[in-house]
Amino acid sequence: MSYTRELHTTEQSAESSFWRALRMVLPILAGLLGLVYLGLTGAGGASSYDTVGDAAFTVKYPVVLRKQKQGTITVTPAQPHAQTVLHFDREFLDTFTILATSPELTNAFETSWGVAYHFGQEAGSDANKLGTVRIVVSSATVGLSSYTVVVDGRMAMLSTMIAP
Rounded to the nearest 5 degrees, what angle is found at the Cα of 72, between the Cα atoms of 62 and 51? Predict the structure, then answer.
């Protein structure tokens, strides 16, 4: 009889330890799932992109991006016009590589502050006015990158966390 009681107590102890461990692990798992849902792991989600801007333009950019994965920076002017000029500072150039643009660049040149990209129709073109500009970027570095973009003379401060 004492052997059965001892065995029963050992089983209860093991079961109790299991449930105690499970109660500690479940909140951690729930927190990780919450981060994934919000997009804070860099794989998409509700908070993986943010939008800034004013009455003249909006910039949608990745808040979290995985190293060597693609992200898209989208610039939309409030009123489409024939040409859009985007200036990016040195921090942007040091962090990101531009993989593609839509529409194609018409001109790009370095300035003392960073680089200026011109999008739009060639001079004298009768084509439609330019709307949204999309820039597909990738990064080989890890960490927080704070950079500035100037859209047609208006400045926006952006930050992207690049996760491993």
Answer: 50
The closest alpha carbon to 67, from 104, 90, 96, belongs to 96
Q: How far apart are CA 125 and CA 143, in angstroms?
A: 42
DSSP tag of 43: S
**Residue 126 is encoded by which pair of tokens?**
């009768």
For residue 38, the 8-state DSSP code is H
Which are the contacts of 112, defined by CB distance < 8 A and separation ≥ 6?
none
User: What is the Cα–Cα distance from 147 to 117, expressed in whole angstroms?
Assistant: 15
Q: Secondary structure of 72-135 in the HEC alphabet?
A: EEEEEECCCECEEEEEEEHHHHHHEEEEEEECCEEEEEECCCEEEEEEECCCCCCCCCECCEEE
Encode pLDDT of 99-137 as tens digits.
999 888 888 889 888 899 988 765 555 455 677 889 999
Indicate if the pLDDT at residue 146 is higher than 90.
yes
